[in-house]
Every structure is written in C-alpha cells, then in structure tokens.
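Note to self: keep these together.
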Amino acid sequence: MDLAQDCQHARQKLTPYCMTYTFERVDARLEDWWTQINIRRVATIHQTPAWLAFLSETQRGEPVIAALKEGQETLGYFISMIVRKFGLRILGSPFPGWSTSYMGCALSADVDRRQMVQTLIEYAFDELGCVHLEMMDRSLTLGDLDGLGVEYRMYHGFEIDLTHSEDELFSRMSSACRRCIRKAEKEGVIIEEAHDSGFADDYYAQLRDVFAKQRLVPTYDMNRVRHLITHVHPTGQLLLLRARDPSGRCIATGMFPHLNGAMYFWGGASWRQHQLLRPNEAIQWQAMKIGKRNGVQTYDMGGAGEYKRKYGGREIAVPWFRKSKYVWIARMRELAQQRLTTRQEIFGRGLIRRLGREKQV
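Structure:
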C-alpha cells in the first residue's frame, strides 16, 4: 500500500468520528418538523403531535423538538419533554411513569448514533439547562452507549411478527393460549371495536379490580386514560377493543396505539369473576388480526410479563439510558421511585379495606 492509499485509509477510519453534530430547537407548535418525519415514515406513535399533547396534559411538561444537524443538513429530530422535579429541569424521552415507550429520535439511517447521544447529552445540560436526561430509542444498541458514562437498564418485552399468515400466528402460540381463545369463542365472548366515551370508565374500573387482586392501586388515574383517548383516538391511531359476554356485559378491555406498521399494547384489564371466559386472550388475538388487516407488521406487547410469552413473540431488549449532570441527582431519582412504590402500596391497602366495608354493607 503506497502513501496515498495509507492516507485515504486513515481518512476513512477517522470520518465517523469527525462528524460535527448539533441540535437546534424548533417550535413544537409548528407542523414542519412532523411533516418531515411523517414523510419518511420513521416515527413511532409516541413521537406524534397527538401523543405529545397527551403527555403535556398528563405530565404538565414542556415539549421539546430539536433538529439534529450536520452543517446545514437536517438528519432527523429528537422528541422529548421537560418536566420539573423538586424544582429541577428533567428531560425525558420518555421518563418512567409516563405510560410511554420508545420516543428518542427519528433519524436518517446513516446517522452515527453514538455521536448523536454524546451531542444530545451536551445539548440537554448546556443548552436546555436540564440536570438529568433519560431516553429510550428503539434503534439504540448498547454499543451506541459504550464509553459515554451513562447508566441504563434493559427494557425487556415481546414482539410479534404479523407478516405471517393468521394460521401461522395462531400455531406459534402456546397450546394453552390457543385453547383459551377457542374457549372464549365457544362461550360466546364477542370482541368489538369501541368508539364511545364510556370506554375509559369500563377500562379503569376493570383496571382497579386487577390491581386490587395484588393489594395495589393503578399507577395512573382515570384522567390519563381519558386524555389518551381524547388526543390519540381521533387520529385513527388508537385501537380500542371491548369484550362482551353472551348477555352483553363488558368483561374486558384493551388499548392498542399504532403507527407506521407498528402496534403497541398500551393496557388491558378485565373483571376477575369473568376471566374464566378467557376474554383477555380473545382481545389480544383480535387485535393482532385487525392490526394485520390494517398493514401492521410488528406488534410490540409493551414490556415484560411472563404471561405474554404464550402469544409466540420473540424476546426483545432495548436500553433505556439515563445521565445526570450531578451525582446526587441519581440518588434523588432512586428516592423518588421508592416513595412512589410505597405510596402505591399504602393506597392499595386502603382500597382493599374500603372494598371490604362496601361488601359488608
């Protein structure tokens, strides 16, 4: 190899690390950023204006949309929200407790994601004045975070490939799961799409019953469900399913946001006394079939849970990283999480006592 070839080879090796990225904030109220993302069809449902409106109301935060730039070229956008905790500015994309999974960035395929994360950390602390950053992006890998001094946990879940035929999808489920779906059909359980305002009441009443079984209360209130439906359902990107028994009684519900060929399981609930009719399995199967008919290619079941394994999906693990500007911020975060867990347990015990008194009356 001659000198010219040596120099060319050296430049090729150095090029990925010589990129100069910057983030520039754009007005979240304008539609230009969303138009650019939507044209590329790379966004997740959690990056849409409707979802940001939902988060703004439920988390009382300030949406942040920032364009990733290399020179004058826009390579994509970072979607997030600033909230205040203990008077401090926290940047979440998303933040735990938001009932939101993959936010992060919608980027061109050739972006150096490790360099992007490094630039994002600097932007969050220096330009936005935040003291803590958290992000979960479906396209990030552990290799992208190597050497950046961030902490992370793996967000585990199950993903089902809906490009297979219905027969193939059904055969991939466990035999017990298939029996449950057949039983629901035999017992006369009907699954219907819901469009009425009473769906949130049905869902949340059943959700309280699910948590009460564990002597807990739901991790979010009724208003969160209502705001999600108000903002996202009119876009046509939120599938609501209701299971009815032969008498017409609503016995289970499920919520499935979707966009760009991906569907997600946001939440499901049912009355305990009717679970022998197997409405939950029937709802999941109906969601898959509806999603498939509407062009959904992947169904993300929304986090871990051993009961999800029976539906035949593959296990996935996505890093959810966090970075604090100061060491003591991380400790404050841990204390806040412990406080939330304790609060939920206390309210749960109170709910059990209250329900017990109502039964006696």
